[in-house]
Every structure is written in C-alpha cells, then in structure tokens.
Amino acid sequence: MCAGAIIHNINNSQDIRLIGGLGVYIPLTSGCFNVANLALCGMPFLAGFYSKDLILEVVSLSYINIFSFFLYFFSTGLTVCYSFRLVYYTITGELNCGSLNMLRDEG
Known about the structure:
It is a multi-pass membrane protein. This protein is an all-alpha fold.
C-alpha cells in the first residue's frame, strides 16, 4: 500500500533514481514504508520475524544439501540489501525529479 501511495504521489513514476527525500514530503507514508520494510527483512517483534525465523531454523536443523542451505541464507541477505537500498533512495536520498507539484501525504 505504501509503495502504491508513493508511486501515485510522484505522477506514476517507478524509477527509484528519480525519487528521493520523500521523508520530508510524506512523513506518514514514509514511516509506514519503513516499518513494512523492516517486517520484510525479519526484524524482531514484527510479523516477518516469526515466519522467517521459523523457516531459517527448520532449514538449519534439517539434513539438506549445503548448496540449498547457502542459497536460502544468501537470498535472505539479498532481501535485506535491496530493502535498505530502496529505503535509502526513496526516503533519505536527494529529490531528483522536478515535476512533483502535487506531492502530499493526504488521500
């Protein structure tokens, strides 16, 4: 929902290189976006933590191929990397688009 609200507010552009500094213009959406990304990364006490922790524990305790074991942990790390990259470019980066005259945090 947050990503859709951000895309709608920046005139339907999905290029994250043109988005930046949205934490100043739409703080409520940016805060919800950060919480959703933290849940996706599996931060403790959020919804994603319990499912991701259970899956990682089952993978760690089972007798599977070491390649699939490594692949699962590597993909979890990549999820964290692209989530924080997305937050960095959209929320804290510089605003690179000049046609954002209707940018606001209202419905």
